[in-house]
Amino acid sequence: MSIQMPLQPVKLPTKVLLSLSTAPVLCLLLGGRAVAIALQEIGQLSEEMFRGERLPILKITDSDSISDLEKSGS
Q: Cα separation of 36 and 42, whole Å?
């Protein structure tokens, strides 16, 4: 029977940890920017798709809007 000694945690210098964590942080920042740009473009495309070209044109005159206001007020 051999007695096992507890494992010692590996101590890395701070500069090594900082240099190892820089690349993932930069990737996250660039990826976040790319996602934001993509979502903005998707929003603009959806606006173009649902623009008034596909909706029926409603003819609203001043007399129609006045009569609607009178009906809702009483």
A: 10
